[in-house]
Design brief:
alpha/beta; single chain; DNA polymerase, domain 1; two-stranded parallel ribbon; 2 domains; TIM Barrel; 19% strand
Amino acid sequence: MDKINLLALNADEVKGFLTRFGEPAFRANQLLDWIWRKNADSFTEMSNLPLVLRRQLADVAVIGILKLLRTQESKDGTVKLLFALQDGQTVETVILPYDIGNSVCLSTQVGCKMGCAFCASGMPGFIRNLAQEEIMEQLLFARRIEQARGRRVKNVVLMGSGEPLDNWDEVLAFLQAVNDPQRLGMSLRHITLSTAGLIPKILELAAKKLPLNLAVSLHAADNDLRSRLLPVNKKYPVEELVAACDQYTAVTGRRVTYEYILLDNINDRPEHARRLTELLRGRLCHVNLIPLNPVAELPYRPSPPGRVKTFATVLEEAGLNVTVRRRLGSDIAAACGQLRNLFCGDPNEG
């Protein structure tokens, strides 16, 4: 019989699960504390639970099912984790180093349906959605690693493999677990969800009024070019997308971040910057410029530094808030757009 994954249960379900053992109600709170506060990954370390109960739990339940296959660390401190899932599929998670507290980049699907022209994650095609507990275990595993290194996880980004809004139910369940004070108890203000622009789901997300950071992969301000780079634009064009983002801002009060990957001689000229300013001027938003992280099999190359600076200047002079994302983990294929369950260098490393 398959064991019950306790990460898939909410607090009430954990309490109901424990009633079968005839234990007092406070045992459930102890169990929840070990899993979600003390980051335990085995029952043996739960020292304030009776030994008999720990053995009973081990017979019928688990705390997660991911198996860490490999760890690789970049020269800049970025850490990439490769996990095996129960069905033999694999998925990647990235820990990103920042002075104010590290971020963890989580995958929400195995593969991706979006087919963005410059992204490695969709190259294998779409395989399946991740369950909310599979998404959560990536975060708990990363938190355990960081705690062992004397560091803490401050922010979470749903920007790994997959389109989060295409895995709607499981991602919402994950967000509930993140925010639940009896589970992770983390403010959603520290969570960023990145989407290629699934308009109906953006509007549904807005209606929930979650204090969540929304990042939208824009990459072009006109429909012809954006449709070439992001096929989803053929269904959800630019004008409708930014209108949906305006609705998100109006309902939640949260500004939207527009991500713009700069591709050499494709979307990085001053005229492209001017089109972007025309599209976004006056909106409550932030523009995150991302020089492309190359993928060997794809024809695109990053914009040279001078052109990145010029592009940013055009936006700034038009009054837009702009940052140029620091490149992290590109030497181990862990940077934005590079995830595809591929490890670089010595296969025995990590």
